[in-house]
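Crash report, auto-generated. Payload:
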Amino acid sequence: MSSIIPGRAVVTGASSGIGAVYADRLATRGHALLIVARRGDRLDALAARLRAQYGADVTTLVADLETSAGLAEVEAAVGNGQLSILVNNAGAGGLGSLAAVSADALERTIKLNIVALTRLSHAALARFREQGAGTLVNIASVMALAPSPSGAVYSGSKAYVLNFTRSLAFEYADTAVRVQAVMPGPIRTEFFTSQGLSDSIFPDSSFISADQLVDAALAGLDAGETVTIPSLENLATWDTIETARKAFMAEIGSGAVASRYRVG
Ligand SMILES: NC(=O)c1ccc[n+]([C@@H]2O[C@H](COP(=O)([O-])OP(=O)(O)OC[C@H]3O[C@@H](n4cnc5c(N)ncnc54)[C@H](OP(=O)(O)O)[C@@H]3O)[C@@H](O)[C@H]2O)c1
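Recovered output after restart:
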């Protein structure tokens, strides 16, 4: 049973991988769709399939979310008219040691993974407040919890997505606005190959498919989760992290400098 209100869904990064599967699943749930990415041919092909297969009402929007103009166009579309769900999925890795990546490339990753996701979330939440309901799904990553020597900006950006989205979930806890952070582990998509990387930076056995990821994420959303980690079997592991985080927050209010730093 879907927990998403009926109406228009917006999915960014729908030209491949996880975003394309979200578009498919939301079409099967009866949503009209606005699908966004840079590769218009891919969007057109997906839109044609969804129309033919499900009779879905699909609009495509070619936009580069790393540019101010592209982002403004999508922001306006998100804020224009009834909106049931926004899936902020578009994201890139910018992987490599910091020294090996140009400062401009790092900035582009931040614009896509952080700035675009933030502005689109802001626009969607304004719609949801007017409507009294709506669903925001932000695609983070397990890398949010994994500082990484070859992914400083990626890991940092996904930590932002996780904390940003969880903070919003707290803000909207007592409303009909739903907020979910999804934390994929390794997913078999074009994510690695499109950046010239082999999938083999992760063991073959650690991958799940984009279909498995999205079906699990939607099951988590329908179950009312604010954080969904599809590859994590043992929820107690997440609970342990949460318990430690709460203990940490309780302890840092001690009003004293830790004894190991006291001089003399
Ligand atoms: N695959 C994994 O192992 C994995 C793990 C954890 C989290 N994730 C996250 O999952 C999300 C989707 O990734 P994926 O695995 O499905 O990878 P993917 O197949 O490479 O898809 C990325 C999507 O983002 C779009 N995109 C990239 N740059 C864009 C830009 N500047 N403007 C607009 N759209 C842009 C791409 O479309 P165009 O190129 O056509 O613009 C594509 O549709 C990302 O946020 C990623 O960080 C993936």
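Post-recovery validation: The helical segments are 17-28, 40-54, 68-79, 103-131, 152-171, 210-222, 235-251.
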